[in-house]
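Customer ticket, subject: "Can you confirm the structure for Aldehyde ferredoxin oxidoreductase?"

Message body: Hello, I'm evaluating your service for our small team and ran a test protein. I'd like someone to confirm that this is what the system normally returns, since I don't have a reference to compare against.
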Amino acid sequence: MLRRVLYIDLTRGESWVEEKHDLFEEWLGGTGVATQILLKETPEGVDPLSPDAPIIFSIGPLSTMFPAMTKTVAQFKSPLTGELGECYAGGRLAMAMRFAGHESIVIRGRAERPCYISIENDVVRIRDATSIWGIGAARVGVILRDVEKGVGRRSIIRIGPAGERMVRYACVVVDTYRHFGRLGLGAVFGSKNLKAIVISGTEDVAIPDPKRYREVYNRIYRMVVQTDAMEKYHDLGTPMNVNVLNLLKGLPTRNFQSTSFAEAENISGERLAEEYLFRRVSCAHCPIGCIHVAMLKTAFTPHHEFEVRRVSYDYEPIYSLGSNLGVTTAEGVLVLIDTCERLGLDAMSTGVVLSWATEAYEKDLITPQETLGVPLQWNNVKGYIKAMENIVAAPNEFYAALARGVEFAASRYGGMDFAMTLGGNEVSGYHTGPASIVGQLVGVRHSHLDNAGYSIDQTAAKKQLDLSSMVDQIIKEDDSRSVFNSLVGCLFARGVYTEENIIDALGSVGITKSKEELTELGRRIFMEKYRFKTREGFDLSKARIPRRFFETVSTLGRIDPETVEKMIALYKERRGWV
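Agent reply: Thanks for trying us out. I re-ran your input and got the following:
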């Protein structure tokens, strides 16, 4: 098995490989290993945009070797929250790292001028990127595919103008249609003068017991293709949640002022599939094909001449750039998603930033002078496009504040009660009940994917779970996902990868783990992440919860602040933090 970490120092222009058998033996891979490297390589209190702040990419022992084991984890100190930055991306990157022979890659330092990194197996070249600096992420991908000749086992990741200008929630585009989206990895790239990474590999993967591996692989493959995930995520995909959450009164609308949207049907997964769906795409070595790509046709002259763009869409950008901005057409949502893609902005944070700004504008907390005449109004797609461009260009203090996120902007202009962040991270598209709030607040990356609190709320509605049971479920998900994210798998297939299947899959590639060992490993990984978070200043007892959460009816009704406080107290008690 791989046990190799590739180090790249942009300041010195050097690279080297280190064998880390003990590290991978203890922490498995993926997020478990990345967290240990982050703790060691990140100076305490370092500026996230300093040359001394590292970027870590890591894959797991099952990456590319089993269906839906398609993700790569990135860890860094977040320039948005000032503590743990962690995000995941699919595409071909995990495959490329696997065949290049590197289970983790660590990048530190800062190049003197714009650069990109070319990795082919153990050969690392740091190349000049001055000619592609300032160019959009999609175009850069096309250019580098032509310039860097390589094999099919190749991945290209890059930033857009937002990352270059260090917008605190800039993303990194991975191949086509995938992203390291949350918490500002793109800004960290920009701070290092790093435009892109091209990685390819030709190494073989040694299997200790091919017969056993094939037996386990075939069984898991059959389970993946026969699971309801195939139909659910392949057919409509996550956009099916638009209509579902709207009916449940859990769809955030106009900056969480409401949880139902009269025009939800117009931006739903069903409407997008009927009128815009062009194709579906899979990540490398995944049979599901959950990436939904729309064909967006826009006229650029009055004489029936059109530009055609392909735009991938999921539930979260539909919420953040759709219902949460009051956008009433599928075309409007796709145009805004495409603008984020062009600029290299995280769609979720961007939508929440703009929804706060729209409400603040509506309440006269900010003026037309500060917006430079841009009318920040619900459903004003053209206005939002201009605002996005201004966030990247930062022509004045107001847009520079927006580029630092909702929490910072509200601290300057007011409106903190409706500044929708948890742990400093712009919130996801669920107002389902207290577990969603608590789950994002206590989660290691303040994401709905840390522990699926939104799903726990919906279970509570059906089974009448008490607060204690909801907290227990959050903790169980925190820990089990720490293991799964060390493999590093796609959460869409988490139902297939039971403890038994994980143990069998690991055993087939020569790694022996028991249920008890995996359970304890998940708990330890979670606690190690919290060690980094608290070291860098996160304090759960001082974390802010926007008042808006308690003003708007959720799926479980109106939420009492005392309910959330009780759940947080129970969580801390069961984690041993009191």
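A couple of notes from the result: The longest helix spans residues 515-535. DSSP finds 23 helices and 17 strands in the chain. Feel free to reply with more questions.
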